[in-house]
Amino acid sequence: MIHVVAVITAKPGQRALILEAYRANRPAVLAEKGCIEYTATIDAAGMPASRASFGADTFVVVEKWETLADLQAHAAAPHMAAYGAKVKDWTESRLIHVLEPA
What we know:
Elements: E1 2-10, H1 15-30, E2 35-41, E3 58-65, H2 68-76, H3 78-87, E4 91-99
Antiparallel strand pairs: 1-3, 1-4, 2-3
Helix pairs in contact: 1-3
C-alpha cells in the first residue's frame, strides 16, 4: 500500500475555493483503480494553535493507494489535470509526501 500526505497551501483567503474544486473532483478520484482513501483534512476545531498547526490557508489530503502504479495513473488522469488547471491561480504551494509502510 502507498500512503500520500499532500499539504496544499492556498493563497490568502482562497482555501474554500480550492476545497470546493477538490470536492467536485473527489468522486472521480474515488472511482480510480486502486484508490482506497482520498480525504481532505484541516486543523481540528477547538485545538489551540501551535507551531504544528497548518492554519487557515492550508489543508491536507490523506490518500491511500493499493500500488505505486495506481498512484502514478492517478497523477496522470485527465480529471487531475483539469483540477490542477482550475486551482492553479488559487494555490500558493503543494508538498506531496509519498510513503510506504515501514
